[in-house]
Amino acid sequence: MTPLSINAERLLGRLRDLGQIGRDDDGRLVRLAASDADRAGRDALVAWIRAAGLEVVVDRIGNIFGIWSNDANAEQAPALLGSHIDTVIDAGIYDGCYGVLSGLEVIETLKAAGYAPTRPIAVAAFTNEEGVRYAPDMMGSLVHAGGLSVDEALATIGTDGTVLGAELERIGYAGTEEPGFLRPYAYVELHIEQASVLEREGVSVGAVENLQGISWQRITIEGEANHAGTTPMAMRRDAGHAAACVVTFLRDRALNANSPTVATVGCMSFEPNAINVIPSRAIFTVDLRDPDGERLRTEEAALADYLKELAASEEVTIAVDRLARFEPVTFDRNIVALIEGAARERGLAVKRMTSGAGHDAQMIARIAPAAMIFVPSIGGISHNPREHTPDADLVAGANILLDVVARLAAR
Ligand code: HGY
Ligand code: MN
Ligand code: MN
Ligand code: MN
């Protein structure tokens, strides 16, 4: 019997349609959490969920759920699929959206095939996975998993000074359902790999067995504004120079560590930000990651020690705000094995791997058995408009998700 397959045209068409929603005047895809662009993307998703005949539930942090249940199975814990549809700035069209739209596609395919699951199957689009406008990232799934109170999350101030709760109200996605209302039986997230391991090794499917730890900090260095022309070098309290020292410290340390540790300074601003004024203030972010929780703590401590020395040597003051901190996660072995088995049955090469990126699965794994399926990213590029995965790989990944969920929802 040929295995059931998803409707490739419908999935790929929706991915492309959603990928056009939220483009700015320069044509860049920017659907930051709780923005007008996010509302437009959410509206399109809710319309597709409704058209599929699923129940739509929006919780207080704006997580959107499409739920397929019937009288016979409604009391059972659902098998949950999902990811996110918010994006970074100048994003690709697959990150997050692929997992949400594939989850919906899988449910529609099973429904149309007359499949009668013993438990409901639901798909979630979690709010603010990217964390670009409001930190921490993976916020909606973190609240759903009980790792952050919904009131605290709603009070978050964004990089643009807005308040998340007010923005969710404004875009019409401040739901009434209490977060965590849905306790999943299991959670499976399909996602592009966002790195180049699968492509380099010619493997179609990644069975993701763990996900690295993440530490986000915002650092503010206060020096002294002074005249760029008259102030001797030895008499400067240059916040900009101190910030540059931190960037170099982090890069050299991660580059020379014989470990997979990665360090990134993604945002930086100077004040007063004038060509002929020594910066009085530098504000920047640090993103540290490591698959080993202990090593991540060692890196955080090494940075803290370095900042102390730097403050003394440069005569500046340094303040640190912690924005996010997530331990590494090991996913559910049984679901990982289901993913491997499903790939092999479809004649696809599959590889167990670690995720370098953060995902909603990292949060949902706190409350349910969870795992992830990766498909290749061409050139390993992501968080970039050149992000690309061939259609055949996108369809294959969605069919693996179909097989895994059909088995999970039959239990
Ligand atoms: O940063 C991350 O890894 C995630 O995409 N928010
Ligand atoms: Mn993502
Ligand atoms: Mn992302
Ligand atoms: Mn992510």
Which spans of ≥5 residues are poorly predicted at pLDDT below 50?
A: none
Q: Strand fraction band? A: 15-25%
Q: Secondary-structure element order, as H and E?
A: HHEEEHEHHHEHEEHEEEHEEHEHEH
Span between termini: 21 Å
List the helices and strands and how they pair.
Layout: H1 8-20, H2 36-51, E1 55-58, E2 64-68, E3 79-83, H3 97-112, E4 121-125, H4 139-144, H5 150-154, H6 164-170, E5 186-192, H7 197-201, E6 205-211, E7 213-222, H8 239-256, E8 262-264, E9 268-271, E10 281-290, H9 293-314, E11 317-326, E12 329-330, H10 333-345, E13 350-355, H11 360-364, E14 370-375, H12 391-408
Helix pairs in contact: 1-3, 3-12, 8-9, 10-12
InterPro entries: Amidase_Cbmase (IPR010158), Bact_exopeptidase_dim_dom (IPR036264), Peptidase_M20 (IPR002933), Peptidase_M20_dimer (IPR011650)
Pfam family, one: Peptidase_M20
Domain Peptidase M20 dimerisation: 212-312
What does this structure look like?
This protein is α/β, with parallel strands linked by helices and 411 residues long. It contains twelve helices and 14 strands. Helix 3 (97-112) packs across helix 12. It is globular and about 80 Å long. 50% of the residues are buried. It binds (2S)-amino(hydroxy)ethanoic acid and manganese (II) ion (MN) (3 copies). Residues 129, 357-359 line the site of one manganese (II) ion.
